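Listing S7. Sequence submitted for prediction.
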Amino acid sequence: MTDSLLAARDLGHAFGTVVALHSVNFDVPPGRIGLVGANGAGKTTLIQILLGILTPTTGTATVFENDATTEFLSVRGRVGYMPENDCLPLDMTAADFLIHAAGLAGLPGNAARQRASDVLTLAGLHEERFRRIGGFSTGMKQRTKLAQAIVGHPDLVFLDEPTAGLDPEGREDMLDLISRLGGFGINALVSSHVLGDIERTCDWVLMLDGGRVIRSGPLDQLVEDDVASVEIIGDRTAVAAALTDAGATVEHDGRHLLVRAPDSDPFLLIRDALAATGAGMLSLGPRSTSLEDVFLSQEGSE
């Protein structure tokens, strides 16, 4: 793949005897990328390598085709970072903190103040911008971290567990903000173990498990919406064989058959298979796969 936003070749990293990443390879295009996996899967380690904070034990990683280890200054000049951990200066106001962050990104005084005001308004903190961060709720602190990540006009932001600790309303607000980043020309890598958040906000998924890449691809190719689920009365094997002969792919899921037919209507194929075999059915309906289904199926294949 050319013009990759992010790429890795045989990338590995170990903390002493603990291996966090095992020979990782991927190419990721521009857009909103979901970096998913359980806690301890290697997500934060990968982000820190891409930022040039950690030096990989083996292999290489690139951001905008710049080597993340040897050209990290070029990388950092184009990215923003929202870390997972608490890192905010609690005795500063949100406005002063954002003005300082904008200045570090190279904006002169008046431009930094205007940019800070605009970004805090975008993050829903306009009314609170002159309050000290130490008095903020968890949701307000998370929005402040996101605001500092984008205040420097980055081409790409790394968001590490951006919804951590948020209540349902705060989570919705954060996901809406992330979804809007593309409209401002900002690519995003969203790291999360909450797969539903990734489905809401991203168009590409990079899936890690135990420090290894187990899937990487467009979200719409990983998550299927055209699967029919039917519970059979009678000979399920005969129905499955008739469906297979008709060109469908059939998977047994307990008492149900999951039927995929990319070039046909799976419901019509099920109708014909039932008529041909004389079997009946207890239930029939669509079944959408989720990222959780994909992740669990990949775990089971390891």
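Caption to Listing S7: primary sequence and predicted structure tokens for the chain studied. The chain has a mean pLDDT of 90. The radius of gyration is 23 Å.
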